[in-house]
Amino acid sequence: MINYDEIIKTYCPLFRFHGFEQTFPCSIEHLLANGTLKSSTDIHNPSPEALAEHSGENVYVDIAESQYRGMTLTNGTVNAPLYVAVQTTQDGLVEISYLVLYAYQDGQTIAFRAPSPKPPFDMTTVFSAILHTYGEHQGDLERVGVRLIPSQEGFELFQVSFEAHGATFDERRCGWFGCRCSPFAGAHGESSSSGQRSGTAYMMIRPSNARGLVKNSLLIFLVLIIAPLIISGLNYVLAGRGGNWQTADRSSSGILPALSGHPDALVRIFAARTVRWRGIFAVHSWIVVKDRGAPRYTRYDYTAWGEPIRVDGFAADGRWFGAMPETVVSVDGAAAEMLIPKIRSAIESYRFRSYGDYSAWPGPNSNTFVQAVMDAVPELRAVLPPTAIGKDYPYRGAWYGLTASRTGVFVSLGGYLGVTAGWVEGIELNILGGVLGLDVRRPALKLPGIGRLGRSLA
């Protein structure tokens, strides 16, 4: 014996409506509420039973305008009845009709083909639209048809169709209407002696969340961009970093080892919040090296005044106008000895070394300079902090290529927008120089203004 309940549940379609949909399905009770059954004697607020008792060419229901929009949405969903009829044909096919009732049709969905804009100009471009003022009428009924054929396991899907406005579309075009088969919560009805079965099944009909998904994604994106900047701004104010930069502390921070106790070669890359309000958004980075047995450290900066590349213009681990530096790269011993010649060579060959070359945004600036050195020495296997605005400036003129570590790729639109993905660099989205991203290798969230939330760079 065929288990119709199970078949109805198994093959019930899931309806997804367009984000701009204005009318939704309803029950027959909703459709009749406040309406008038027009017959020899008008009946206001007719019942479904009244419909069965009155029929004829001139009998119709005048649906109240208050019911046009369908059943009320709650949190983006509406519980509307899905009417079901199922029968077994003489050939053994099971045919199921899932019927959706509307109180009002507020427009006509159209689709047409047009020539493609390029040769061979074939009719492959499909346009779809809704004409809101065409085809308006009271009451509407849409149908999804499912046909099953017997199989060893019971039944298998043979055909799916969708019927709208009198036209039937088979499964090859059913995707236009967003219907698919999925498990169903429940259905009930009573069998008749003819083998037909009809009844009412209740399903949750949810409008398409495409527009809502885009809206929510955009909101999350804006929060991830704006909220960190607000927090960074508050930290700037509360920390009192808006003082006179001319008198700001530039003394040694003490994070480099004493020369007397550290004869080995050394490489460091430091970054510290930049001067005044710019420190809300960005850091200034620089390079420090020391050969084995050298009596002093050598510091390389790229600045906006004088010759851009400055050597030993400040204490090697000095505070940057009051801001404490953080360590980005730390290499010592034999490894540092091997890297220092490459670092110096990259500095000497850096192309933006003339008066006027410096540009705070989007670059080339101090972070562009340090990034260029890191690109030339991939053995450093390091990445500047997300607040190093200017690091994504395409100083070589190439707007795409391999990352500094050679473990990934990047695309940059002049330093204003870009994407980087690499094992060392992580995933970064560059927006006007700021970075939003994720570091998988050294787990951390990268946020504009704030920087890294997670494991430190060094």
Give a brief description:
Helix content is 16%, strand content 36%. The protein is α+β, with helices and mostly antiparallel strands. A hairpin with a 2-residue loop joins strand 11 and strand 12.
Radius of gyration: 35 Å
Strand content: 35-45%
The averaged pLDDT comes out at: 83
Question: Looking at the structure, what is the overall shape?
Answer: elongated
Which percent bin holds the helix content?
10-25%
Stretches where pLDDT is under 50 for at least 5 consecutive residues are 171-210
Task: Count the E strands.
Answer: 27
**Structural class, please?**
alpha+beta
Structure description:
The protein is α+β, with helices and mostly antiparallel strands. The strands form six sheets. Strands 2, 6, 7, 10, 11, 12, 14 and 15 form an eight-stranded mixed sheet that branches. The chain has a seven-stranded antiparallel sheet with strand order 21-22-23-24-25-26-27. The chain folds into two domains: 4-26 and 70-208, no CATH class; 214-454, no CATH class. The chain is elongated, with a radius of gyration of 35 Å. It contains six helices and 27 strands. The chain is 16% helix and 36% strand. The N and C termini lie far apart (71 Å). Strand 3 (36-38) and strand 4 form a beta hairpin. The protein has helices at residues 4-10, 28-32, 48-53, 210-238, 334-348, 366-376, and strands at residues 13-14, 16-17, 36-38, 43-44, 60-62, 78-88, 94-105, 108-114, 125-131, 137-151, 154-164, 167-170, 180-181, 187-191, 197-207, 266-273, 283-290, 298-302, 309-311, 326-332, 400-402, 408-413, 417-422, 426-431, 434-439, 444-447, 451-454.
